[in-house]
Specification:
- The strands form two sheets. The protein has a seven-stranded antiparallel sheet with strand order 3-4-5-9-8-7-6, with helices on both faces. Strands 1-2-10 form a three-stranded antiparallel sheet, with no helix packed on it.
- With about 150 residues, it is an alpha+beta fold.
Length: about 150
């Protein structure tokens, strides 16, 4: 019996330790790991804004979703790249826009711009890029899958 209990602990115990809260909005859902938290979730306006950070603040992910007003990815990329004072911006072959910038506290940061149908999404990541990209890979959307950044 002790062996069975130990086996169950080693199989299911770690899963319980990394349990996540699911955050859903009109555009995507994400299982927020226990070492991350949702800092801001403003989805009641024409532009939906969400800010996530690790609890020790070494990685920050921001999402902005809104109507593209029929603008293409290059136009939206140019606008956000200027706003963030990006050092570099370009449209990749897969049609996703990317801009490189420094956050307000000097951290290397990257922004991703996607357009699908009449919507756009801008995702910025700052700090620990590995953590941020791993977190972004858990974002899911059935209706707006094309808006999720391709990492």
């Amino acid at each position: 019996m002790k062996i069975l209990l130990l086996l169950l602990f080693f199989v299911f115990g770690p899963a319980a330790a990394v349990s996540a809260d699911t955050v859903k909005n009109d555009y995507f859902s994400v299982d927020v790991p226990s070492d991350w938290q949702l800092l801001q979730d403003d989805n009641d306006n024409a532009i939906a804004l969400s800010v996530y950070a690790t609890k020790n603040r070494d990685s920050i992910v921001t999402t902005v979703v809104g109507s593209n007003g029929r603008a293409d990815v290059a136009t939206i990329l140019k606008s956000f790249a200027q706003q963030y004072k990006a050092a570099e911006s370009f449209v990749r072959k897969d049609g996703q826009g990317v801009f490189i910038f420094k956050s307000y506290d000097g951290m290397d940061s990257t922004g991703y711009v996607t357009v699908s149908d009449r919507m756009y999404m801008v995702v910025t990541v700052s700090g620990n890029m590995r953590k941020a990209r791993n977190f972004l890979k858990s974002f899911q959307s059935a209706e707006y899958a094309d808006l999720l950044p391709k990492l």
